[in-house]
Amino acid sequence: MRKLIVFILVGFVLSCQKKDNVDTQIEQKTVNEIDFTLTPKHFDIGVISKSNHDSIHDFSFDILNNTTDSVYLGKVDVSCGCVNVIYKSNVIPPGEHGIVSGNINISNQYGHLSKAIFVNYDVDGLIVLRIKGDVKD
User: Closest Cα partner for 104 from 38, 59, 136, 43?
Assistant: First the structure.
């Protein structure tokens, strides 16, 4: 029985140490995050009545690279199949702009919506863009 208790305690201590390492890695990534200006920060479609509008709503985000290094924007992922992104992977030189655009199909959306677009950059960076709004019948 004593061996079992020691085994459980050792496992608990090791799992806590692993968690601390993960938190440290997240903090380091945040500290080293590349500086961007997003316009807009969140694309707000406002309040849309489906009876008065097309089910497709276009959006566009401008990403300004404020660093002294070129940044490679790679794969773009979306949080929902209703979001269609029109984007080509590219390099944004220092002080230059990149555009992520597309559309959202609101035909199956009701109430408040908040959809994320995940833009991967360089080796392990991530920019999160968000589309917000309210959809009514």
Answer: 59
d(CA 66, CA 84) in angstroms, rounded, equals 27
Is residue 7 helix, strand or coil? helix
Question: Superfamily assignment of 34-136 in CATH?
Answer: Immunoglobulins (2.60.40.10)
Mean pLDDT by 10 residues, the chain (137 residues): 48 41 36 68 88 81 90 90 86 92 89 92 87 90
Residue 105: what are its φ and ψ, rounded to 5°?
-90, 110
Rg (CA), the chain: 21
DSSP 66-78: -SSS-EEEEEEEE
Kindly report the pTM of this predicted structure: 0.70
What is the layout of strands, in order, in the sheet containing 97-105?
Answer: 36-39, 56-65, 97-105, 83-86
